[in-house]
Specification:
Number of strands: 6
InterPro entries: KH_dom-like_a/b, OsmC/Ohr_fam, OsmC/Ohrsf
Largest sheet: 3 strands, antiparallel
CATH superfamily of the largest domain: K homology (KH) domain
Shape: globular
CATH topology of the largest domain: GMP Synthetase, Chain A, domain 3
Order of helices and strands: EEEHEEHHE
Protein name: Osmotically inducible protein OsmC
Helix content: 25-40%
Radius of gyration: 17 Å
Number of helices: 3
Number of domains: 2
Oligomer: single chain
Strand order of the largest sheet: 1-2-3
Structural class: alpha+beta
CATH class of the largest domain: Alpha Beta
Strand content: 25-35%
CATH architecture of the largest domain: 2-Layer Sandwich
Distance between the termini: 36 Å
Length: 131
Amino acid sequence: MQIEVQVRQISPATAQATARTHQVMIDRPLDKGGEDRGMMGGEQLLVSLGGCFMSNLLAAIRAREAGITDVQLSVTGTLETAPGRFSAIDVAVSAQTQDHALLQKLVEISDRACIVSNTLRPAVTLNFRVI
């Protein structure tokens, strides 16, 4: 199986990515010569990790009919230079629940099921934690 997306230039600094019927803009901030019409690629990488993980976590919660609601993530990447890259990414998970042990277990399961975290793990230190 393969997943394919399309990315095309739409202005001197802006690109548009299309996946299935969905589109997002990719751009640089004004202070970096962009038009600020969308997130930078690095920000989208963090969003991709958060989105993939969240999708798996919500599926795990639904499958178990767990009393876990209002799930929120804060995804923070630590930048290095020469070459520019993320050296670590921290995913802080919060939710409304009375069963924090179950939430922690589902976080671990969701991390292992996420194709983005599985792809990034060999190159970046990933930390998933319940707050």
